[in-house]
Structure formats: structure tokens, C-alpha cells
Write a structure and sequence with these properties.
Strand content: 5-15%
Order of helices and strands: EHEHEHEHEHEHHEEHH
CATH superfamily: NAD(P)-binding Rossmann-like Domain
CATH topology: Rossmann fold
Strand order of the largest sheet: 3-2-1-4-5-6-7-8
Distance between the termini: 29 Å
Shape: globular
CATH class: Alpha Beta
Number of helices: 9
């Protein structure tokens, strides 16, 4: 893996806590400029302050990725403040304990975990294309295997279950990865991959989940060999962000031992194309993207 990252600028959502925070610090230690996106301004300020003596730089951008207007404002800020982005890393995640909607009227787990990455990628893809090794990386999860995408009820209006909502959003992440890779022009240098970081019970991901789900997570974390440490998860994420192997591999779901086959629904062409079209409609953009590069 590349040790000197002084020429890399990495936009990392979900980088103020959990293994995202570990990854942000590790990348800055190796010289990278890391633009961390998070909701909590105090956590962001603390991260920046504690990282001031690292070889690289950590900057914080406050944003609620459930809000489409905020995602667009974030993209505008990024394009203004950074000449280019080398890596767009979608690591923010949410598991809501009960069904609620964003200000845009979208079920919150779908809004944060899937539509946020979908829209931010749309807004920043051209800014990414000029980088020498441009990458889009999404944090998915093996929990996607328990889900199906009910495209007639994508937002779980009929019988909400927090774990099902989260699993569906992770399935959507993988379907988006495969579909974006399929849509990128053959001569595009951009790679897009997603990673299963492992089961990391020490994160704040399930802070809003129901009591039974939180208890299940706690119990599972006590079983030897089941849990993944924040450091190990951060290293898996960083592998996709900067390892040369993933500069030429695209459209992959990557686990502990490398690329793996996801659930068949994630690669089903009809499902992923319909999800793409529905996602475009939900965020108010054309589904006919990405456009060919003009350079």
C-alpha cells in the first residue's frame, strides 16, 4: 500500500467517529489532505485540533447528508476549496430505530445511506475525473444478504423494521456501485468499489436502533471471531482508498479476503437500473448520467 499520500485529497464522509475517524487520522499521518464530512461540529473541531501535528491535513465540513440541499451545498464548497478530489469515500451510515423522514420526505436510512452518496457522486464526479487515480468508494455491509429491494415500497412505508431498512440500504449501495461502474465510459479512469468493513460493534452506527437490535449487536460483539476492531475496519477501507490494486479494479464488492460475489440481487441488471432511475427521481436529477467526459 502507498505510504506517501502527500499528493492525495480524500473526501471522507462519516469521518468523525468509529473506524471512519481512525481512517481519517491514519491517512493524514501518511500525508493526505482529508476533507472529513460529519454532522457534529464539535466532534469535527476536536478531530481537526488533535490532528494538527500530523504530516497531512484534516479539514472538517459540517453537513447533514439526509438533506439534499445540504449535499448540494457541500459539493459547491468542495469544488470551490479543492482543486481536485482524488477519492470520494462514502462512509457515513445510519440505522434509525423508528421510521421517520428527512426534510425532503425520504425515509431517513435510505436518505443518508443511499441517496446521499448517489447525489454527492453526481455532483462531484466531474471534479473527480481530472485526478490521476480517481476513485469512488462506498462502505457497504454483508448484512445486505438478508435484504431484498422492494421497488414498490422502497421507503418501507408498510411495516418498518430498522434492521431491514439498514440491510436494504446496504444492498442499494452495492447495486449503485455495480450500475455506476457499468455506466462509466470505457475510457474513464474513475474506479468505483464498495467494501464490507466487517462487523464493528464499537461504532455508533446503531445508536438509534431499537433496544432488541442494540442488544443483539452487543451480544454478537462478545462472540470470539465475530467482531472486527475499528482499526481493522479502517485498514480495509483504506485499502480501497489508496492501494494501487484498486486503481484498476472497478465494480467490485470487497470483503476481508478481497473481491467477493455479493447477493445476486445487487448485480441484477433490471433491479439496479430501476433503482438508479428511482434514485434520480427522488433527488430531482436526470437518470441519464454520468455524461461522457469532455476532456
Amino acid at each position: 500500500m502507498t505510504n506517501d499520500l502527500s499528493d492525495r485529497t480524500i473526501l471522507l464522509t462519516g469521518g468523525t467517529s468509529g473506524f471512519g475517524r481512525v481512517a481519517a487520522v491514519d491517512l493524514a499521518k501518511r500525508g493526505a489532505t482529508v476533507a472529513v464530512v460529519g454532522r457534529d461540529e464539535s466532534k469535527g473541531a476536536t478531530l481537526v485540533e488533535r490532528s494538527s501535528d500530523l504530516a497531512g491535513t484534516i479539514a472538517f465540513h459540517q453537513a447533514d447528508l439526509a438533506s439534499q440541499s445540504t449535499v448540494r451545498s457541500l459539493a459547491t464548497t468542495v469544488k470551490r476549496e479543492y482543486d481536485q478530489i482524488d477519492v470520494l469515500a462514502h462512509n457515513a451510515g445510519l440505522s434509525a430505530g423508528s421510521r421517520r423522514e428527512s426534510l425532503d420526505g425520504i425515509e431517513i436510512t435510505l436518505a443518508v445511506n443511499h441517496l446521499g452518496p448517489y447525489l454527492l457522486t453526481y455532483e462531484l464526479l466531474d471534479h473527480l475525473r481530472d485526478a490521476p487515480d480517481p476513485r469512488v468508494v462506498i462502505t457497504a455491509s454483508d448484512i445486505h444478504r438478508r435484504a431484498t429491494l422492494d421497488l414498490d415500497d422502497l421507503q418501507l412505508t408498510d411495516g418498518y423494521d430498522s434492521l431491514e431498512a439498514y440491510a436494504r440500504s446496504k444492498l442499494a449501495n452495492i447495486a449503485f456501485t455495480v450500475e455506476l461502474d457499468d455506466r462509466l465510459p470505457d475510457d474513464s479512469a474513475v474506479t468505483v468499489n464498495c467494501v464490507h468493513p466487517g462487523f464493528v460493534p464499537s461504532t455508533e452506527l446503531f445508536r438509534e436502533a431499537s433496544l432488541p437490535t442494540r442488544l443483539l449487536v452487543r451480544i454478537a460483539g462478545l462472540i470470539p471471531g465475530v467482531a472486527t476492531s475499528k482499526q481493522a475496519a479502517a485498514e480495509r477501507l483504506q485499502t480501497l482508498l489508496v492501494d494501487p490494486r484498486y486503481g484498476s479494479v472497478s465494480g467490485q464488492y470487497v470483503g476481508k479476503d478481497g473481491p467477493a460475489d455479493p447477493a445476486s440481487e445487487a448485480t441484477n441488471q433490471a433491479v439496479r437500473q430501476r433503482l438508479w432511475e428511482m434514485s434520480a427521481e427522488l433527488v430531482g436529477i436526470t437518470s441519464d448520467w454520468p455524461a461522457p467526459s469532455t476532456t
